[in-house]
Automatic annotation (TrEMBL):
A Pfam family that the UniProt record links to this protein: N6_N4_Mtase
Enzyme Commission number(s) from the entry: 2.1.1.72
Keyword annotations of the record: Methyltransferase, S-adenosyl-L-methionine, Transferase
Protein's UniProt name: site-specific DNA-methyltransferase (adenine-specific)
Known catalytic reactions: a 2'-deoxyadenosine in DNA + S-adenosyl-L-methionine = an N(6)-methyl-2'-deoxyadenosine in DNA + S-adenosyl-L-homocysteine + H(+)
Keyword Transmembrane carried by entry: no
Record field: compositional bias (Basic and acidic residues): 187-204
Boundaries of every DNA methylase N-4/N-6 domain copy: 71-363
Family the UniProt entry places it in: Belongs to the N(4)/N(6)-methyltransferase family.
Organism: Zhongshania aquimaris
Region of interest (Disordered), ranges: 181-207, 524-551
Domain of life: Bacteria
């Protein structure tokens, strides 16, 4: 089918078009849980990493303004929606709800990715193929890179009802497929083992290549005389020498032809290890021998916490493979389903910057201690030895601020009593698209959007006299958005001031007082299963259709 006539496929499900109006919360640091090394270990130490406790959809929205277009690699390991109850989240819900919740998150993740960034999503057969079509819609089908198969088990499960499932998928998408390229895989010892140096060539180890090739070459038919005097009349039947006679003689003069120890072999060009590409193209099948398996990852967790407190952790070697392909030192990595904290631990050891989000209590009880052990150089498992990690760096621990607005006893929306003046100014800046940067000298300057535009937020009711004084101090150099509870004059009285009332100015922007958009089925509204549609032959409405309504 030509691209002109190609039909666009998309998933249709109940509730797909009901998008939440997310409140862009501010982040509040908890210094008691933040942690930094006591001294710099190297010049590559990174201290501005973020661990965020809270609903991951709200956290992603909170990050969007400051980090849009800056994340080099996103890795997520979302609940697989298998119907199994896990310790730290309920992994099983109505299929259409799972798709809606994933779509909300993927759309913000897409905005956070840099132009040369990529996203890697771990998933199994239960939702992989629906997720693939959903990702085609969000990221663009042309930006699909690969579906990696990770063999996670090394032995069959005899208790399996039908098949013993040995693999998971990792879906890989680029923000821009034309721009993104994976780093080459480092050459393995097995690949380098073929290179020897039997003639002590000063250029180092080499391997013999075949001089003959099957591709037609008009200058590739000529006899060759070996040093022993034996004459090779020509290449084997149906093939040609890959070099012209003149080029062959140049290579021989440069000691780049191997004739065998007695000088009687068919000549073979030497391929030097020092001259070959120092990396290989990644493949889509990853065996547990290369990147680890589930038992290995569970052992890592037991070594850390004394018990297998996480059901489906990922081995550090798997994450190392992903970050090796997708990032370089100093790049920013984001994981919004942090789980046991493997992504941050591995990124830290590999000198990548990282942001992780986790809603469960284990964010403080398990992830924080794990990261502390990494920073102190006390964690000896995983990739610690292979990457020669000895400690250093740090992270800051944040929680999501409460909703800016709350309802009073009469049902009216008012500013939350939990907000002080600084929090209010920062929240209003985020809602209005300003960068929060309070001035040390200008009391009215809480942030900026352009060189001339400033913002001032207060819960006060401002009189004409106060506004006149503010206007006089601002002068003609700036234009200030003034956000206050009320003002006692006409809104357009001062040409350098734009007056708006809080909370009226932000009330319709988003959903306030909604703190949990998590993938925990207990937090989701009940939804009736759609009835079969006779016009679609009895299919439910969460099936896949093309633009013409055909399945």
């Amino acid at each position: 089918m030509s691209s002109k006539n190609k039909t666009k496929l998309e998933l249709i499900w109940i509730g797909k078009d009901k998008r939440p109006k997310l409140e862009p919360r501010i982040l509040l640091e908890d210094p008691s849980k933040s942690y930094h090394a006591s001294h710099k270990v190297s010049e590559n130490d990174i201290f501005d990493n973020k661990l965020i406790f809270g609903d991951n959809l709200l956290a992603l929205k909170a990050l969007e303004q400051d980090y849009a277009g800056k994340v080099k690699c996103v890795f997520i390991d979302p609940p697989y929606n298998t119907g199994s109850a896990f310790t730290h989240y309920e992994d099983g819900m109505e299929h259409s709800i799972w798709l809606s919740l994933m779509k909300d998150r993927l759309e913000i993740l897409h905005s956070l990715m840099s132009k040369d960034g990529s996203i890697w999503i771990s998933i199994d057969d239960n939702e992989a193929h629906y997720l693939k079509v959903l990702c085609d819609e969000v990221f663009g089908r042309n930006n699909f890179v690969a579906s990696v198969i990770w063999r996670k088990n090394y032995a069959p499960k005899s208790s399996a009802k039908h098949f013993s499932v040995d693999h998971d998928y990792i879906l890989v998408y680029a923000k821009d497929e034309d721009t993104w390229r994976p780093n080459p895989m480092p050459r393995s010892d097995k690949q380098n083992k073929a290179y020897k140096n039997p003639d002590n060539d000063p250029r180092g180890p080499w391997r013999a290549n075949n001089l003959a090739a099957r591709n037609y070459y008009s200058k590739g038919m000529y006899p060759i005389t070996c040093p022993s005097g034996r004459v090779v009349d020509g290449p084997p039947h149906g093939s040609y020498w890959r070099y012209s006679e003149e080029k062959f003689r140049e290579l021989d003069a440069d000691n780049r032809i191997w004739w065998g120890k007695d000088g009687n072999n068919v000549p073979a060009p030497k391929i030097f290890l020092s001259e070959v590409k120092q990396g290989v193209v990644p493949q889509t099948y990853w065996d547990y021998q290369e990147v680890g398996h589930t038992q290995e990852s569970k052992k890592e967790i037991v070594d850390l916490f004394g018990a297998a407190v996480f059901d489906t952790p990922k081995p550090e070697r798997l994450m190392e493979r992903i970050l090796t392909l997708a990032t370089n030192p100093g790049d920013l990595v984001l994981d919004s389903f942090a789980g046991s904290g493997t992504t941050g631990a591995v990124a830290h050891k590999m000198h990548r910057r990282w942001i992780m989000v986790e809603l469960g209590d284990h964010c403080a009880t398990h992830i924080v201690p794990r990261l502390k052990s990494v920073i102190d150089g006390e964690h000896k498992g995983g990739i610690t030895d292979s990457c020669k990690w000895i400690g250093g760096g740090g992270f800051r621990y944040y929680r999501l601020a409460p909703s800016l607005l709350e309802q009073d006893r009469w049902g009216r929306w008012v500013i939350s009593k939990d907000y002080d003046a600084a929090m209010l100014a920062e929240a209003i800046c985020k809602l209005e698209g300003f960068t929060y940067a309070p001035s040390d000298t200008e009391w009215w300057n809480h942030g900026y959007s352009t060189e001339q535009d400033r913002i001032y937020a207060t819960t006060q009711t401002l009189s004409v006299e106060q506004l006149q004084a503010l206007s006089d101090e601002v002068g003609e150099d700036y234009s200030v958005l003034v956000c206050c509870s009320a003002f006692r004059c006409k809104a357009d009285r001062f040409p350098n001031l734009t007056l708006k009332k809080i909370p009226k100015m932000v009330l319709s922007r988003c959903e306030y007082g909604h703190d949990d958009y998590s993938l925990n089925v207990e937090n989701l509204p009940m939804q009736e299963r759609p009835k079969p549609d006779p016009s679609q032959g009895g299919l439910f409405q969460d099936e896949m259709f093309d633009d013409n309504g055909q399945g």
